Amino acid sequence: MAPILEINNLYKNYGSVEILKDINVSIEQGDFLVLVGPSGCGKSTLLNCIAGLEPISGGNMAIAGQDMTNVSPKDRDIAMVFQSYALYPTMTVAKNITFGMKVRGVEQSVQDEKLAYVAQQLQIEPLLNRKPGQLSGGQRQRVAMGRALVRDPKLFLFDEPLSNLDAKLRVEMRTEIKSLHQRLGASMVYVTHDQIEAMTLATKIVVMKGGVIQQIGTPAEIYTRPANLFVADFMGSPAMNLIPAKTKANGSGTQIEIARKEGAPIVLTDTRNQNLPENVIVGVRPEDIADAALGRVGDTQEAECLIDIVEPAGADTFAVMQLGGKHVTARLHAETDATAGEAQKLAFDLAKVSYFEPDTGLRLN
Questions:
Q1: 156 to each of 48, 147, 184, how far by Cα in Å?
Q2: Rounded to 5 degrees, what are φ and ψ at 247?
Q3: pLDDT category, 207, cuts 50, 70, 90?
Q4: How crowded is the C-beta side of 76, counted as CA atoms within 13 Å?
Q5: 5-234 is classed in which CATH architecture?
Q6: How far apart are the first and last CA of the chain?
Q7: 241-356, which class in CATH?
Q8: Whole-model pTM?
Q9: Which of 15, 22, 200, 204 is the most buried (most CB within 10 A)?
């Protein structure tokens, strides 16, 4: 079966400025693809190219096996949900949802049936006779989604749909979009700059920077095996610790030396990774530095670290220290007795460590 969306060697230029460079992505029916990256990385432009709202400068694109490179937006069998909701203020919710069907001459009985189904899916039945001005931001976003859902398109496109909502409502709507995806088995492409949103929603993530794809993978792949320093730093909250270190080969593996603020460097021995260059950046997630006193599974090695700052955060306590001249964060258990200004024995899980080349930023292991 053909991929539901296939993009090959896509370029987008505005005059002499390259916005998208050699984009190659494909997703299967039922996938939830999230395009993520900082502002200005080209993710919304790519979504607009998929929608046909922006002409592409090179390459081609197919939806469900049909070439869409020069097809107009209305003939692409897609539905788009925008950040701004784009509802008609003078129409009721019901009319907003069915308006597209009415324009296309869909029979009234079919309109009613689809409206009832979508209103139930999105739990907006009590709102059908209200106008958009009488709704909250979350309710308006549900109506905008309802208008897309009645289309039953091949592809749903979402452009930062939750960025106008407050934090609590964003989490609720995120859960709702995820459960909607699971119930409908629909194919979705979703743009966000929020990496937590990307991790929780996606079956596949595309990380972008400067119009170039940095990595494509499942949320787990992107999180545990970032392809380069940019992805390592961008994905995860708190971000991955990126610590400059020196390596030395010894009989049983590679010695990793990390400078401390005071005293001799920390020395860890990695038996998995041989032939590392002399200078590396060690990437370690905060949760992979644990309180040695609590015992750990995995390939852990212990080292004394001077704790600078302790930040209690409910279920976790974050301890910040200086290693390799950088602030390094450990995610410790709430019960830890870590104290600012005192040394603490911490366990580093070497099975989870990433290594990066300092000059190119590329992953080494």
A1: 12, 11, 11
A2: -120, 155
A3: very high
A4: 25
A5: 3-Layer(aba) Sandwich (3.40)
A6: 34
A7: mainly beta
A8: 0.91
A9: 204
